[in-house]
Each structure stands twice: as C-alpha cells, then as structure tokens.
C-alpha cells in the first residue's frame, strides 16, 4: 500500500488467498475444473479490494500527512550525505541559506571511485 502499510497489505493478501482463495479454488475446481479456479481467483481479488478499500477509509489522513511530511524531512536531511548525489556532482545547499533544500551543480565530483 502506498501509505507505508505494507504489513497490512501482506496480511490481507495472505488471509484472502490462503484462507479463502485456496479452499474456494479447490472446491470450485472440483466442480467446474479450471473455470472454477478462475472464478475463485476473481472472488478473492474482489474480496481483497473490498477489505483494503475499507482499511484505507479507516486511516487517519491528517496523521498520514504528518508521517509523510516527516519522511520527506528525514529524506532531505539524509540526501545531503548521499554518495550517489555527491558523485553526480550535485551539491546540497546549506540549510541556513535562502535556497535551503535545493541542489546546485558542482563542477567536479566531490567523491571519486578508486
């Protein structure tokens, strides 16, 4: 899930496919063959969409926005010391400058590979 709740998505997927999908596919495939298996997959997919949609509607979206903003702040702080950015010749401007949080081009790479 895009809200940083991969564990919730994992649990929902495991529950839907293993607890509902497998028994349903086994039962319906015994009756209808491969068509029954596909029908079970469609039912499980719809069930998963319904459950995950319900979970998303229960999120506290104001708290999610704050979590996302904090992640952006942490990411912008950690990118200053990122070797990949330094090797591409990008220099992160000082937080005290008026252009804080922006990159500027640097003529030569600050780090070199041996």
Description:
The structure is a single chain. The mean pLDDT is 77. The protein has four helices and two strands, in the order ααααββ. It has a two-stranded antiparallel ribbon. It is mostly helical and 114 residues long. The chain has two domains: 6-59; 63-105, no CATH class.
Give the helix tally.
4
Output the structural class.
mainly alpha
Major β-sheet, in short? 2 strands, antiparallel
Which regions have little confidence, pLDDT < 50, spanning 5+ residues?
none
Order of helices and strands: HHHHEE
Strand elements, count = 2
List keywords for this structure.
114 residues; mainly alpha; 2 domains; two-stranded antiparallel ribbon; 2 strands; 66% helix; elongated
Summed up:
The protein contains four helices and two strands. The chain has helices at residues 6-32, 34-57, 61-79, 83-87, and strands at 90-92, 103-105.
Topology:
Layout: H1 6-32, H2 34-57, H3 61-79, H4 83-87, E1 90-92, E2 103-105
Antiparallel strand pairs: 1-2
Helix pairs in contact: 1-2
């Amino acid at each position: 899930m895009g809200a940083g709740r991969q564990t919730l998505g994992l649990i929902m997927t495991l529950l839907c496919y293993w607890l509902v999908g497998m028994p349903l596919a086994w039962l319906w495939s015994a009756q209808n063959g491969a068509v029954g298996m596909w029908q079970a997959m469609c039912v499980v997919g719809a069930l998963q969409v319904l459950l995950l949609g319900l979970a998303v509607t229960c999120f506290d979206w104001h708290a999610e926005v704050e979590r996302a903003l904090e992640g952006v702040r942490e990411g912008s702080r950690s990118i200053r010391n990122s070797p990949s950015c330094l090797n591409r010749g990008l220099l992160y401007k000082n937080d005290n400058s008026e252009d804080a949080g922006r990159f500027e081009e640097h003529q030569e790479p600050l780090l070199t590979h041996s």
